[in-house]
Specification:
The chain contains 5 helices and 3 strands. The protein is of the alpha+beta class and 136 residues long. The protein has one domain: K homology (KH) domain (GMP Synthetase, Chain A, domain 3), CATH 3.30.300. Helix 1 packs across helix 4. The longest helix is centred in the last third of the chain and has 25 residues. The radius of gyration is 19 Å and the shape is elongated. The chain starts with a helix and ends with a helix.
């Protein structure tokens, strides 16, 4: 099961970038795939990176800070991936050497975003500690 999940992860990462033409799908990274024991269902966990446009005014009005994702952007990406799941499953069937291809269920993986928040909190705590030590 793990080998099938790993192969699905590699193939989907390529297929989403090259084959999905939906403009709602931005920079998507497939972080992990879990496959059910009967290989009928696959949970695909994805992270979504900022998709900045060439219009800086639009970027400034839609994003709170550079690097932050808007929940609306996440929802639109997930809806688009959900709609493309049948198409992606068809393409996977041509690439995989398995008897059946699992149904794809896309889920948002917010661990990268939480990691960035924790990292910035640690950096700000270290900076505050350094300022406090320099004042003493």
């Amino acid at each position: 099961m793990q080998r099938v999940a790993d192969q699905i992860q590699r193939e989907l990462a390529t297929l989403i970038q090259l084959e999905v033409n939906d403009p709602r799908v931005g920079m998507v990274s497939v972080t992990s795939v879990t496959v059910s024991k009967d290989l009928a269902h696959a949970r695909v966990y994805v992270t979504i990176l900022n998709s900045l446009t060439s219009n800086s005014d639009l970027n400034a009005s839609t994003l709170t800070e550079p690097g932050d994702l808007d929940q609306l952007e996440i929802d639109e990406n997930m809806k688009a991936l959900g709609k493309a799941s049948g198409f992606l499953r068809t393409l996977l069937s041509k690439r995989l050497k398995t008897r059946s291809v699992p149904k794809l269920q896309f889920h948002y993986d917010g661990s990268v975003q939480r990691g960035h928040k924790l990292s910035s909190l640690i950096d700000s705590a270290l900076a505050a500690d350094e300022d406090q030590n320099s004042d003493s």
